[in-house]
UniProtKB/TrEMBL annotation:
This is Undecaprenyl-phosphate galactosephosphotransferase. Residues 4-54 form the Bacterial sugar transferase domain. The keyword DNA repair does not apply. GO terms for molecular function: phosphotransferase activity, for other substituted phosphate groups. Keywords: Transferase. It holds the Pfam family Bac_transf. InterPro entries: Bact_transf (IPR003362). It comes from the Bacteria.
Amino acid sequence: MGPAGLTGLWQVEKRGDSGKMSAEERKELDIKYAKTFSFWLDIKIIFKTITAFIQKENV
């Protein structure tokens, strides 16, 4: 397991829907990230994090 970061795949994957995600879904997304991580995936996650800050919907 890697160190905790500021954001991650599960934090940005289900924006909206009040962030409803089970612990199992979060774990699956963490595993997916660990298996497929890349520089470009990190850039995509960072971009989604930035856009989440400026969206109007409460999440």
